[in-house]
Amino acid sequence: MLPILIRWTVLCLIGLYLASCTNPPAQYDIIIQNGTVYDGTGNAPQVADIGIIGQRIDTIGDLSQAEAETVIDASGLAVAPGFINMLSWAAYPLLEDGRSMSGIKQGVTLEVFGEGSSLGPVSEAAKQRALENGDTIAWTSFGEGLQHLVDQGVATNVGSFVGATTIRVHELGYEDRAPNEAELVRMQDLVRHAMQEGALGLGSSLIYAPAFYASTEELIALAKVAAEYDGKYISHLRSEGDNFEQAVNELFTIAEEANIAAEIYHLKAAGQRNWPKLDRVLAKIDSARQAGMDVSANMYNYVAASTGLDATMPPWVQEGGTRAWVERLQDPTIRQRVVAEMESDTNEWENFLQLAGDADNILLVEFEQDSLKQYVGQTVANIAEKRGASPAETIIDLVVQNEGDIGTVYFLMNEENVKKQIKLPYMTFGSDARSIAAEGKNLESSTHPRTYGNFARLLGKYVREEQVISLEEAIHRLTELSAQKLNIQERGTLAPGFYADVVIFDPATIQDKATFEEPHQYSEGMVHVLVNGTPVLKEGEHTEATPGMFVKGSGYKEKEEA
């Protein structure tokens, strides 16, 4: 009897050994263990492990018996898809510093450009203007510009709309006129080529010259081409203030006539007198959505906007570009007319001097000329008082002395409306800012705190502290919903086969630190960030890795399959 038991025991041991040889523990490049996984869908989180092989997620589940070259313990932390910045101005800063520090520190793994302007297409005239300013543009087409950025090395993924202003400048320069038939055809061809190279759609910024000069019909003609490739029309409306409702109607017209999905950049009611208009605009959007129109919006989470002093002056004086604008302002007759228009309560153009209500609400943050950097962090009201001039005259003098535009923060919105917008189920988020490091030359200027804090502020202030929306809902908006809006595949969700853009953060501590007084402060609470399966942030510190990719729109895929 005993020999039989021994034989059976030996056979069982052999069987177990063979089983272990034929089914060894799964091997991954990275395992994220024991994290509270928010998959991006808005569903309740679950504690699980994530196994990553190469650039992609392979498995989500119990991987306690698996092995990996790198194991990240996410116990007590939230694990989510990488955040998508729906409105980024990081393209040129990333050419200088590909680390994307202020974005990565908040968990942004995709920066989306294209509010009116894009890296391409670039005309020979534009290249020549750049040379005259001491710069060199090493690409020509839209796709070449994005690929050049990636080839330089970037920590984050990048994508872009093609800018309607960039298209217009390519063919018309900075002239205030409509394109003729041949020019419009060429403009449409430029949009078509950009869509085939991976543009996400067409982006416009209609309060600024020369974008202001474009008619609704011109925008419809360009948007029709983007629609051929399932792209989106996304717009800084022609007005966010006195003509807010009319500007939304124009967006609806473009969307309907071009048969294209539409999105409003940084939705807001600007200026105290216009705050009540937000409810009427939201009702318009709800009605359009119920009628079947694909229209939505994004926002940043602050009561102040940021742009240039150009937004305080009429578009006609800016025709021809920066040099022509500065030269005109030095003509006494023109200067007198500009001052009169700046000080008038007009609604023919978006007058930020009037919308701010008071020059105390206009904060200057960035100058080109060293002689003017003494004014960084001061209001127009303060400077005007020191100079003994009116706010309008002070603004003109500063632009002339700076030989160009000046970075400016405008306090235009109210907190009640900010929270109201955050609650909207179709609302996503964009910083409307660069991604930069809090070091070196950047510290010589100020900036809007959204540069360093927009996404962390959502999760800290509005989710954890004020409970405006839930954490799973906020993550859904920052990830899956944003990817769906952009028609991007295999990103925005934690799922097998998707790219491993993953953020790991502490929901109890994530918080923006940047303020208007001291904006160059990184957000806190983001622990790890992976981009395409590569750790870019480890224990809160940048790894110097640059695995970012050019994320292309669906038009590019159609071209490959054709």
What is the CA-atom radius of gyration, in angstroms?
A: 26 Å
- The helix content is 25-40%
What percent strand? 15-25%
Number of helices: 20
Task: Calculate the mean pLDDT score and round it.
Answer: 95
- Please provide the count of β strands: 21
Shape: globular
Judged by helices, strands and strand pairing, the structural class is alpha/beta
From the N-terminal CA to the C-terminal CA, the straight-line distance is 73 Å
How does the major sheet shape up? 9 strands, mixed
Q: Uncertain segments of ≥5 residues (pLDDT<50)?
A: 1-6, 8-22, 558-562
Give an overview of the whole structure:
This protein has 20 helices and 21 strands. It is an alpha/beta fold. A hairpin with a 2-residue loop joins strand 19 and strand 20. Helix 7 packs parallel to helix 8, helix 8 crosses helix 9 and helix 14 crosses helix 15. The longest helix has 21 residues.
